[in-house]
């Protein structure tokens, strides 16, 4: 929301010398977020003045282009030029070459003189072009940075302006003004207006506020205005889609009248393009009061206006010239011809105000928030009007906004207002909130005096009764978000000042610290980070295809309102999101990556969600909570890692590195992890390990990702990955990990190369060697897998290093050899292994 400061000063006591930064600094105090500063003069400098074309000679050029050699007077006739500098003519007549052709002799135009600087750091200086020295430039709106029109220069008469020659364009077009842009949170829709921001500025500074919504409404509704009926047969949440509809008619408007420059300047600075006088008035009133308006060509209306829900299969052609099929939940504005607007979202083309319109019907209505929001999303029709209606518009301001529009159309367009108006609907019952006097202090942690509580609530615009132990509070009509005592406590804290709330760290109860799982998780994350991996956090939203590939068909949760249709499901595995992070880093030039993530995956059961949501303000019963929890997906914690590019030694990562990550995770938790040959559709066949606990529970997979997946995802070859069920690791972890004592006796190392079938998994052979070697074996590891020359077809040679050590003596060579032979015998019996 952009707030031009000159506009804000009409309703709030903003000092004349205050900048946009100063205004935002005050608004931050009451919880509004600053976004940006818009100051046209920041990109413009130097002499930019009003000039008049006193002569114009068209000169055809050899390139086929015709230029205008102009003499332009930039001071009143008979006056002397006061500006000095290169290219400034003392008599005030500048020779200027111009390529535009939308002006004639006698037109007043905008002249940028030598020394001026335009947006993009474009400096104006005398320059020789087309055989002339052009001392300045006649400017278009785009060149000035105040519009997009670049086909012709700005002719001031078309703007309804006839200023004196030499007048500063900064003052003439309001380029001296500035705007503060703030971010409005969804619960504070009233701040989508100058009225709302002025009130918040007054709250922040303790200064006066003048409410613009205090116009007298003439005439009152007497039943003789344009006929309107509200017939909502399908209310949402038992609330009518429309509970107020104000209609006023203004006749005989003159469409040839341009919008006044003060209005155009303010709208431009607010980020709104000037279109025509009626459209500009509609936008101006909406920005000022927060009430969206819609203007209809009254001559195109057929019969009474009826607000109703759409019929099945009904269609409408909206102002963007698109024909839309309506839903039975859509709230419509209709007449005898059918739909003429999607209520609160966009009007219909059949009753659009055009350049030939002379009679206008003004609509100022109040619509239900949920209904408007659903229609806007359903038809993908975001608009300034729907943005406000979705967040709640002041019910009481509709007639005032209509009157403001009537006054502007009469004053600026020469219209005549009909003597009768229409105002139908029923005022919603105001919610009465019970606020215990001690509740704000207990909730916020700051002692509020009764005076602070009552003053804050009344400053909000609420009516307050009661005292002592409890207050009865009725929220103002522009704050539909205030529904509970917690809302009121927050508002009191906001107005008294967030800076007054003390920072108090909670004190941990004696004898308590991190839980067992919290300690294990910290130990795991620290170990992975210490090993060189970098922790990242990916979005939990993935595509259906990714879930099916990595989750292997596990049921997934589909999002009702995804940020992107492509990523419309909650993840059932961590790797898809982690791979997206890898791809993003690769696209930014990072080639050697070691990334890991721990996060929840979402595995729904038979029950998904609940049929109803319990109301706010009261703790649900245990039965209701059980029903809610039953519908929540199981969310185990998973660990995943991806390694791609080169390792610190300069070699490419391989599947063994992925296994090392898995074994490191298990080791720091005191868990024994087993790996066997596995298969997974996302992993390379033959280079994939299935990981399980000693009891046989499968908890993960590791290895090299499938070449087809890597090619489709634009990932480097030999990208390896691992994913583990971290919760399963934590459950299997030892409560106390006892470090092995370091023996003072030397180790005896013996290697063995075994010839086995190519189908035998190396991991299973390793486990057989471990069991067969006996208690003297300290460690066994695979160091070679050879299948080349000298190895029979269908066979492979697996070489293992065996480390033997005793705790009480130095082993003899015979003891080590005997243990080695026992291991080989076990391998021969289990797999037919033969020493090579």
UniProtKB/TrEMBL annotation:
GO terms for molecular function: ATP binding; magnesium ion binding; phenylalanine-tRNA ligase activity; tRNA binding. Keywords: Aminoacyl-tRNA synthetase, ATP-binding, Cytoplasm, Ligase, Magnesium, Metal-binding, Nucleotide-binding, Protein biosynthesis, RNA-binding, tRNA-binding. Mg(2+) binds at residues 481, 487, 490-491. InterPro entries: aa-tRNA-synth_II/BPL/LPL, B3/B4_tRNA-bd, DNA-bd_dom_put_sf, Fdx_antiC-bd, Fdx_antiC-bd_sf, NA-bd_OB-fold, Phe-tRNA-ligase_IIc_bsu, Phe-tRNA-ligase_IIc_bsu_bact. It is found in: Cytoplasm. HAMAP family: Phe_tRNA_synth_beta1 (MF_00283). Tetramer of two alpha and two beta subunits. Belongs to the phenylalanyl-tRNA synthetase beta subunit family. Type 1 subfamily. This is Phenylalanine--tRNA ligase beta subunit. It comes from Psychromicrobium silvestre.
